[in-house]
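Budget justification aside, the reviewers requested a transparent look at the raw inputs and outputs of the sequence design task funded under Objective 1. We therefore reproduce one unedited record. The lines immediately below are the structure tokens for a 392-residue chain.
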């Protein structure tokens, strides 16, 4: 039972946290403008994009882009998300033009969605598109259209958006200076998510695709169909469902294309190899910061192997790796001072965000030097801006 003193401490901490978030959110809304645009791709398909632009016109600003299949909601130019409740607020504090895009065929973007769409190195006509070309076209539109940008772009993404960050690196747009694939989806046959060492992970795959995998016929702001197993006992439910074929016959009914693809390709064939970024990361021009967590149950494999592949296949790339004592994406949250009952004694997320990731992106749009850690003024600048009443 909690003591009254502990109750008071928790209440005071909650009030302080809420007040800090309110101050951050107020500053962002007061100092930024939100616009929404449908950016045209080379084949005529338009991708929905939310853009947050600093009101400050006294200087030119770098662009930070995240492309996602998980929605860049909330939709509507008068609606603002809770960026101030996580590490994104640091980029607002630094004056970035913040851009979020629904990938092709998801949420409010036009076109057909394909999971881990293969990279096409031989694009010869406008209808030859992939995630790299969509990123190229988005960057090209942004630097040519958004006022007061400095012509330099970074791309980041965690998990599935980490795959899109890798594909961004393959776009090689001249304005793209830095890319950070974090816990990136990389090899879905061998090491990430649906297979571990080639063994199919039934519960993980069905839990994800029974919610994510249903088709979206047209652009929408509403979430897709959701499946509820209606029990707290996963183990027993999967036992009762029985053979793998029953999951499709009883519940999915051939409505999830990628589920059928997985079983149409039970072995490591060319279909899987074409969908593995490790096989195509060559001649990457932007600097790369790969990030992962040692205790990531989903995409620990991808971070290690993507970094390794870039080192081998693109040796001239300025390629860095950060691995911390984190679960999936934990480094991007407000607090990573513990993992379960293990206490680290400090907030490792805040340290990483302010001493590694933010200096990485702050540095490359300026000089593209070979050492990101030469730029030490970033954290001091961040602290100075906070002291001037921007955001903390």
């Amino acid at each position: 039972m909690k003591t009254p003193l502990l109750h008071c401490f928790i209440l005071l901490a909650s009030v302080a946290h809420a007040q800090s978030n309110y101050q951050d959110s107020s500053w962002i809304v007061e100092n930024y403008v939100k616009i929404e645009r449908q950016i045209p791709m080379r084949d005529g398909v338009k991708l929905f994009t939310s853009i947050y632009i600093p009101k400050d016109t006294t200087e030119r600003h770098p662009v930070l882009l995240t492309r996602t299949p998980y929605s860049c909601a909330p939709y509507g130019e008068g609606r603002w998300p809770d960026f101030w409740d996580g590490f994104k607020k640091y980029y607002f504090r630094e004056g970035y033009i913040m851009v979020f895009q629904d990938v092709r065929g998801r949420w409010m973007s036009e076109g057909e969605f394909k999971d881990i769409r293969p990279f096409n190195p031989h694009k010869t006509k406008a209808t030859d598109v992939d995630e790299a070309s969509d990123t190229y076209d988005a960057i090209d539109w942004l630097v040519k259209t958004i006022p007061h940008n400095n012509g330099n772009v970074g791309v980041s993404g965690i998990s599935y958006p980490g795959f899109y960050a890798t594909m961004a690196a393959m776009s090689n747009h001249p304005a793209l200076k830095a890319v950070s694939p974090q816990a990136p989806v990389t090899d879905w046959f061998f090491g990430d998510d649906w297979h571990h060492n080639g063994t199919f992970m039934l519960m993980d795959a069905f839990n994800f695709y029974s919610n994510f995998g249903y088709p979206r016929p047209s652009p929408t702001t509403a979430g897709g169909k959701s499946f509820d197993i209606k029990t707290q006992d996963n183990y027993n439910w999967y036992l009762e469902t029985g053979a793998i074929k029953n999951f499709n016959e009883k519940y999915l009914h051939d409505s999830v294309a990628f589920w059928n693809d997985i079983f149409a390709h039970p072995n490591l064939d060319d279909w899987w190899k074409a969908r593995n970024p490790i096989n195509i990361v060559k001649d990457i021009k932007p600097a790369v910061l790969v990030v992962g967590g040692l205790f990531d149950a989903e995409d620990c494999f991808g971070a290690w192997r993507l970094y390794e592949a870039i080192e081998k296949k693109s040796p001239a790339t300025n390629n860095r790796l950060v691995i911390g004592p984190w679960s999936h994406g934990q480094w991007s949250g407000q607090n990573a001072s513990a993992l379960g009952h293990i206490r680290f004694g400090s907030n490792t997320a805040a340290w990483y965000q302010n001493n590694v990731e933010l200096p990485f992106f702050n540095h490359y749009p300026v000089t593209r030097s070979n050492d990101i850690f030469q730029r030490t003024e970033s954290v001091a600048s961040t602290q100075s801006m906070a002291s001037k009443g921007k955001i903390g």
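Residues 199-264 form a domain with the alpha-amino acid ester hydrolase ( Helical cap domain) fold (CATH 1.10.3020). The chain has two domains: 13-191+270-387, 199-264. Computational costs for records of this kind are itemized in the attached budget.
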